[in-house]
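Researcher: Please predict.
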Amino acid sequence: MELKEILAQKDIAKKSFVADMEKRAPLVGIDLSEVADDEMELWHEVAQGVSALGVPVVAFIAKGKTAPWKLPLLTPQERDGMSTYMPVDIIVLPSPSKRSQAFQNATVPVCERADDTHDFDPIKEAGNGFFYQNKNKWEIFAAIVRALETFRFPYDWKNVQKEGYRKVSLL
């Protein structure tokens, strides 16, 4: 499937998920489906920080598991025939293992740095996501803020989406 088609599906999925949201507002997801209970507080603080910026946040959580705070929740599976990360623009991944799923949906990942990740560089207009070195709330939040700032520039944002999508389409 072409990136243009994926982006059109993403717009439809986002509208069906958050009906009153304006098109240029980002939707951030945090995938908690594989997070251990002792790490939930870290991700809660990250979600609070993003919410404090006025950005809508949803959590992806494993079936049968509950988050210790109130956020709209999705189970990481197909929802009404759409791929898991399709409605979100930015997905915060506690581990880099699900990057390919994000790339397939033209969803930009924020996760720990891995060998095949390239932090977006606005000068070079290249990179496939926003990455942090250490798993602490400040580095994670800084990566999210960089992603949110880049989202405000459609040309740059599309470049990040293309880089990620190109990565999975070459596999």
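Model: Confidence is low (pLDDT under 50) at residues 75-82.
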